[in-house]
Design goal:
alpha/beta, Rossmann fold, 2 domains, seven-stranded parallel sheet, six-stranded parallel sheet, 15 helices, 13 strands
Length: about 375
């Protein structure tokens, strides 16, 4: 019988029920830990209504435990009624329980580790659905108080936790994200043509990609494209991402544009198709008002696409000197940067090469190593 160092409980529901965002983050983290960590035992907790057919093949030190309740019911019982339905009682004795999705379930006698990706619901409350904003503003601080330790995606988020919620610095560790090795320039014409036809993509386009919600500033990107389009008769704008919330104004902005026939909102893009879409884009634009990390910036760089992004929150940490940064509210500066990256070949090549170098600094292997060190630290504190 193998004597494992630690038994780690992990709330894996988001990996199965959310396609992008935190779901993708959680999947990549566990996939990498499954490759790197043979010393610890993991139990992945999932809700009753999770699609179990999406579970990856995992090694013997990983097991899955299906909770007897749906995600919605668990959320109500844990975080609205505050019932003490401890996940570490009744066959769940863990050294650490890690929740990667803002909120921590009830724990009886286990060190709780909580990942807080950003505080957008506090920084930009008007860009979040009021009911969700109110709930997060109550539940996230409560979870942070109960957690033994907190993980932030970036120094920016760590600073926000310290200044906005008075979380002690020593209680927070920065554990960022990575870029999968599949994100690289795609040159296979068969793959490119297949993806182009699948999403009905134009030949030349500027790409914006994220969940459709106000914080991502797609309206500003559309306005910038209105300025850019007259310089390029064959340039289009492609906006990719699933519908989030308060997205109606994005569609209205696109429809009211004088070049609306060149603006394509294509919806959610399958994970497998992302490298090809990044590779086909002339420029990747990410003028978000606020980010906890900004994985798409790194993915586009890894695919050889130059990037222009906003100069706020975590984006300077992620971008470094590998892209052009502009204020999210400066539509003219955004338009000028996009135009320069499309027209100036030397500038474009310089940022493409810088992008490759910058993206290579962020791997899921490095992320998992940092996380394992945090696990070890917390376990030592408990002892």
């Amino acid at each position: 019988m193998i004597d494992f160092t630690m038994h780690i409980g992990f709330h894996y529901t988001s990996a199965l029920r959310q396609q992008g965002g935190i779901g993708r983050y959680t999947r990549e983290l566990i996939n990498t830990l499954a490759i790197l960590d043979t010393k610890n035992r993991y139990t992945l907790l999932v809700s009753k209504d999770s699609p179990l057919d999406k579970l990856p093949t995992l090694p013997d030190n990983f097991q899955v435990k299906v909770m007897p309740l749906t995600e919605k019911i668990m959320t109500i019982l844990w975080h609205r009624l505050y019932l003490p339905l401890w996940v570490d009682v009744g066959g769940g004795a863990y050294d650490i329980f890690h929740s990667p999705n803002f909120i921590l379930p009830p724990l009886y006698n286990t060190c709780g580790l909580l990942t807080v990706h950003d505080l957008s619901f506090m920084k930009y409350p008007h860009k979040t659905v009021p009911k969700l904003q109110k709930w997060l503003s109550k539940t996230v601080p409560h979870s942070i108080k109960r957690a033994t330790h907190v993980l932030a995606d970036s120094m920016s988020t760590k600073n926000d936790l310290e200044t906005m919620l008075n979380v002690p610095s020593k209680k927070i560790s920065v554990v960022g994200a990575g870029v999968e090795s599949r994100f690289k320039p795609i040159i296979d014409t068969h793959i490119l043509n297949h993806v182009r036809q699948k999403y009905n993509l134009p030949t030349k386009f500027i790409l914006g990609l994220s969940t459709l919600e106000p914080r991502k500033n797609f309206e500003g990107l559309i306005q910038a494209f209105n300025h850019v389009e007259p310089f390029f008769s064959d340039m289009h704008l492609v906006i990719a991402g699933g519908k989030g919330w308060l997205y109606e104004s994005i569609f209205a902005e696109a429809e009211s544009s004088s070049v609306s026939d060149k603006i394509h909102i294509i919806g959610f893009v399958d994970d497998d198709d992302l490298p090809a879409i990044y590779s086909m884009a002339e420029v990747f634009a990410y003028p978000s008002y606020y980010e906890g990390f900004g994985i798409p910036v790194l993915e586009s760089m890894a695919c050889g696409t130059p990037v222009v992004a906003a100069d706020n929150s975590s984006l300077p940490e992620v971008m470094g000197e590998a892209g052009i940064m502009v204020p999210a509210t400066d539509i003219t500066a955004l338009a000028v940067a996009i135009k320069e990256l499309c027209c100036d070949h030397a500038l474009r090549e310089r940022y493409i090469q810088r992008g490759f170098e910058q993206a290579s600094k962020f791997t899921w292997g490095k992320t998992a190593d940092i996380l394992l060190n945090v696990y070890s630290m917390i376990s030592t504190v408990k002892q």
